[in-house]
Amino acid sequence: MESNNIEIEYISWKHLHLALIMLVNNMISTGFKPDIIYAVIKGGLIPARILSDLLEIDEIGFIGVKFYKGINTREAKPELTLPPTSSVRNKKILVVDDVVDSGRTLQLVIEELTRYGAKEIKSLAIFVKPWSPIYPDYYYKETNKWVVFPWELVETSKELQLRENDLGEDYIIYENLKKLI
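^ thats the sequence. predicted structure below, dont judge the formating
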């Protein structure tokens, strides 16, 4: 799919849940069971919540990193905007983000959680870009497209004119959201 000369890949809520279930099954098969899930704000918030439900893990921590200024526009380097919110000392951590692109955000988060005393850290992202020098331990799919998630339709539409063929069955949701803003 292409919108304003940027190839996009939209993942619906249904597809997202199926991807996360597959990732949980992969993680379980490796024997890893985290003590706490750590969401990278903003992209990792919703997947981390869904994963906490699937894995039956009550504790979710948050760490803030700002890197993107807009679609396909990054800062010079990722910046820590919120330090870890929950103790990680001697705990097994699952770091969750939506997309690993340059790998620099993931690298910063792992370094920070290590500095705070995490016992073991594994990472999970829904998508990874093929050019990333760092891959998460668990990921659903490699893509070179700009990924649009169902929780960011308004945010994305401010920069792109999304079309029906970009969003499939969720286009009606997008059209109704546009009426509210």
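The chain has six helices and nine strands.
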